[in-house]
Amino acid sequence: MKIYNVERKEAYDPDTEPSKIDDDDLQYLDKKDYEYIICSYAQDMWSGEGAAVLKDINGKFMFIELGHCSCYGPLEERNPKCIYSLEEIIKLLDKHCKDTYGGYAKAVAEKLKELEGGINNETGYYNYSLR
Known about the structure:
alpha+beta
């Protein structure tokens, strides 16, 4: 499973800093079931926040709000089921871009659209031919 760590463009809380999800954080996932994960994550000494999208080997997607405290990790005790099509996950991410985790969701959405051919790199606009 490939890991893509992306940083949000908006300013972080002064007490947090960007952090990368790595293989240790993925120990609770069955990696053979997933093609990739895109993560935008930040943490301070005791807690963290962020967003991620998983793509499984069947081409389905899942959105996850990430977080942790000092006693568990960002993906611990999760058993994500990828149930969304590309069109559905893009709509879900667009909705999440407007909420509290918007900066994290935007960073993940941009990378997802890049990976799945959703953004025309020349124009910067969404390529609707995916629909």
